[in-house]
Each structure stands twice: as C-alpha cells, then as structure tokens.
Amino acid sequence: MPCVFFNSDAHVIRNAGGRAAEAVRSICISQQLLGTTEVAVVHHTDCGMLTFKDSDLAGIIKKNLGVDVGDQKFLPFSDVDQSVRDDVELLANERLVKPGTVITGFTYDVKTGKLLQVAQQTKA
Fold it and tell me: Is residue 60 part of a domain?
C-alpha cells in the first residue's frame, strides 16, 4: 500500500498486494496537486497475493465469468520483502514521480505487529 505524505497527512492508496504500479496515477496527482514529497510502500506478511499465479486467476475468471483475460498481469508475488524492493525501485525510476522524492519500503508483520524497513531510495 503506497502512502504519500504532506504536512503530516498520509494519503493512503490501497490496492490488492499494495502494488505501486497501480498507484502511480494517484501518487502523481497527490504530488502535483497537493505537494506530497515522500512515499511509503507497505506490504504485509500472509498476503493473499502470495497464494496464486496469474494463470491461476485467469483460469478462475474464465470459469466464473467466461472471459479470457489473455496476458493480463495481476501482480502476485512469492516473496513479500522482494515485492517491496521491486516497488520501491519501480517508483524510483517512474517518470511521474517527482525528483527528490524519498521512497521507503516496509513489510508489516501481521503476527508481531512490527513494521520493518526493507528498502529506501531517493528519486534522482
């Protein structure tokens, strides 16, 4: 779940798996119209996105809806910490993220309640 920060406010952008690729539009709007300067990416342990592959969900959709989704990417992952690192990297290289933006990635452990930092980059 990417969050953008402005004057102590957090603009939370929540989506399945907290994937940053789906949040770029909202991050851009928040930065350009509200002046946010930091982004936090937070994924959590025991996430449902760990439980399937694109092909699994495509099969379920075909069966339940009769729709062939082709090569649709649903962005599942097999390693929570790596997904955080990947999303921090994606945002650090995203042309719609303002230069100088600090992007920090965390994993929230649902069993312990601890938030662990796993990555940080500043957008060049």
Answer: no
